[in-house]
Amino acid sequence: MKINKEDIFKRQITLSEIGEEGQQKLQEAKVLVVGCGGLGSPIAVYLAASGIGQLHLVDFDTVDATNLHRQVFYSLDDVGKYKSEVLTDFIQGRALFTNVTFSKEPITKTNVIELISEYDIIVDGTDSLPTKYLLNDACVLMGKPLVYGSLYKFDGYVSVFNLKQEKGCFSANLRDAFPVMNTDIPNCEEAGTLNAIVGMIATVQVNEVLKIVTGVGKPLQNELLIYNALQNSQLKMKLQAKISKAKIEKIFENESYYDASCDVQNPDWLISPKELKRQLSFREESRNLELIAVLPNLELPFEVHRTIPIQELDVEGFEIDANKTYVLVCQRGITSYRATTMLKERYPEAKVISLAGGVSQY
């Protein structure tokens, strides 16, 4: 059966505001989606289904069972596979007129400029605060629009940052809304989230991309949309472009944008699930273990001695017993490794280790 563009995009082309001309603009657009999780995966699928001609997906992470409740384009068979690769295969099976490519490398300060330079619009589908600021600052330096989205529990946030205006200047960016990166804000793993709001915010981001490409409607520029799922309420926070490109150039030069979740973990600071099981099975060896959960409300396959959410971890006040080995645990081994790093930096001789892969791999 032969399928042509007119068949697939008929309902879209029928809109007088879009028409053949708007559909052609979508076909010629090049969009970069960073993150293929709760936000990025539906964003990528909807953009491809809308007829975006060139799509590049960036995500270094693999599918985990805990992703499936909100990352609905992955299945149980995909657990352990790279998200960007799985999502690319899914899109290729349904979007005949989209050229989709992917990268399994983390986006970093060293590769971000080269990466975003090839695309018209950058979409932030990450849950990493350092990466969000990295994308923002790079987009300011390169004059690229950034479609921003983020989540915190039942709240969602969307804006279009750094969109070029008629007079040649640019709209507000992330640092106009939040000048300083607040590293105490927990991500979805640490704070939790409801699946419905994830999909809602993702489709709002898609809508902003389509408006920018086709020139239809008014983009969310110079304002931050804040939506609350519990009250079904929303407000728009007005933004003003104040922070200069020169200032962001200095920030970019000095900032590392370090994110522990993108890092290679030190094997000396890890314990494998198999080894932990072995030690817990022997009373003598387990006697000197102290298991600490660094996320609340975890479904644990073993008992822990304490739960200390990472945002409440008092490193200076943490009492170290030289006879104990502290095993820190979380869902996927990212937050626990970050907590381990914090304690090892303060107490380098202490026996503090993180459960590799978290309880999801136990």
Structural class: alpha/beta
Largest sheet: 8 strands, mixed
Shape category: globular
- End-to-end distance: 47 Å
| Beta-strand fraction estimate | 15-25%
Report the order of strands and helices. Answer: HHHEHEHEHEHEEHHHEEHEHHEEEHE
Structure write-up:
The chain has 362 residues and is of the alpha/beta class. It folds into two domains: 5-260, NAD(P)-binding Rossmann-like Domain (Rossmann fold, 3-Layer(aba) Sandwich), CATH 3.40.50.720; 267-361, Rhodanese-like domain (Oxidized Rhodanese, domain 1). 33% of the residues lie in helices and 17% in strands. It has 14 helices and 13 strands. Helix 4 links the parallel strand 1 and strand 2 (54-58). The radius of gyration is 22 Å and the shape is globular. The N and C termini lie far apart (47 Å). The mean pLDDT is 91.
SSE diagram, text form:
Blueprint: H1 5-8, H2 10-13, H3 19-28, E1 30-34, H4 40-50, E2 54-58, H5 83-92, E3 99-103, H6 112-116, E4 121-124, H7 129-142, E5 146-152, E6 155-161, H8 174-177, H9 188-191, H10 195-214, E7 223-228, E8 233-238, H11 245-254, E9 270-271, H12 273-281, H13 283-286, E10 289-293, E11 306-307, E12 325-329, H14 335-346, E13 352-355
Parallel strand pairs: 1-2, 1-4, 2-3, 4-5, 9-13, 10-11, 10-12, 12-13
Antiparallel strand pairs: 5-6, 6-7, 7-8
Helix pairs in contact: 4-5, 4-10, 7-11
Key words describing this protein structure:
Oxidized Rhodanese, domain 1; 362 residues; Rossmann fold; 14 helices; eight-stranded mixed beta sheet; single chain; five-stranded parallel beta sheet
